[in-house]
Amino acid sequence: MQRTILATAFAAVTAASMTTAVQADTWRMATKMPVDSPEGQLFQHFAERVDDYTDGELTIQMFPNEQLGKEDAVLEQLQSGVVTIYAESFAFMKRWEPRLAWVVAPFAFDDQAHWSRFMNSELVDGWFASAAEQSGIVPLGDPSAIIRGPYRVLVSNTPVNSLDDVAGLKMRMPANQLLMKTWDNLGAQVMTLPWTEVYQSISKDIVQAVTSPASMVEAMRFNEVAPFIARTNEYYQSVGFMTNQAAFEALDEETREGLMRAYRETGQESQTAMAEIASASLERMQHNGVTYTELDTQPFIDRTRERYQRLDAEGELPDGFLQSVQDTRTAAK
Questions:
Q1: In the chain, helix, strand, coil percent, each to 5?
Q2: Predicted confidence (pLDDT) per residue in 302-318, tens digit
Q3: Across the strands, what pairs with 229?
């Protein structure tokens, strides 16, 4: 009986504190990344900028390391307004708009600039609008602004020097059918695991490899159990600041302007910081025994392109996807 009373009292205090936080314009921001990781530091800079540019009218409270749960749990909290920003891949919004899985289409884009133009195309704008209608969740600003990477690598406990070496490789993938089927088509043996379980799974040889942003390999200590790194440029990716639309629209104009200024400047910082971090990290890891390879990705691109063409002929691709990829290949004149 005493335990029940205490539990009820604790719940009431928690609810009251949450209500007070919302009234005080405190936004909860959830992320998978450790505080001291490159992305974790970037998020902290964003929070500091928000506090500065809004004169303390809006505070960002950080919850790193999946403290609030895995993707599905956090997305539900984001939808309900308990969480206000979830800093992760926009591909997770596929639960409301399946076509958003294609924002991380592997081996489809020539470079970061090509992908950024695609992310700001009318096609992708329509996908985000569709997701927002069902979820009440929107991107905070340019969806390609805060880069993740700046490029992707394959980290493995066995050498991968060509497409042939992928055959039979036990690879960790997120629960994303597009990515899973792409690597299955390339010959890998795909398994789904949470990001935070990769290190232990490789150490036990449950999986042999994972794809990762280059800047996150050392932060996640993957190099300790997987000393082979191969650059794949698998896809280009941003850290999507998925935002509760109602909370954003409730901000007064001045506070909203401060928030967006912080977002834009954090995006600008990410462009240079992630490249510098990745370069320095790779140099350290090579000094400590990691083997680094820049793969010839053309065989990966060719095989994946053939698959896309088959899917398109079968009506399995989103309408307009391949055309938009082509249209955004070069900048508008």
A1: 55, 15, 30
A2: 999 999 999 999 999 99
A3: 155, 292
Residue written as token pair 């600008």: 268
* Burial class (CB within 10 angstroms; exposed 0-12, middle 13-18, buried 19+) of 180: middle
The two three-digit tokens of residue 83, written as one number:
């969480």
* Positive or negative: CA dihedral 182, 127, 94, 62: positive
| The token pair that represents 81 in the structure block | 């307004």
Q: Which two tokens stand for residue 48?
A: 């500091």
Q: Which residues contact 55 (CB under 8 A, 6 or more apart)?
A: 258
Enter the pTM of the model.
Answer: 0.85
Residue 19 parent element (H or E): helix 2-23
Q: Who's near 290: CB < 8 A, 6+ residues apart?
A: 223, 227, 228, 229, 282
Burial (0-12, 13-18, 19+ Cβ within 10 Å), 24: exposed
Alpha-carbon distance 2 to 7, whole Å? 9
* Residue 226 Cα to chain centre, angstroms: 22
Contacts of 271-275 with CB under 8 Å at 24 or more apart are 271/147, 271/150, 273/38, 273/42, 274/38, 274/42, 274/147, 274/148, 274/149, 274/150, 274/213, 274/215, 275/150
Distances (CA, A) of 331 to 115, 116, 118, 121, 322: 11, 10, 10, 12, 16
How many residues are listed for the chain in this entry?
333
Q: Given pLDDT bands bounded at 50, 70 and 90, which one contains residue 219? A: confident
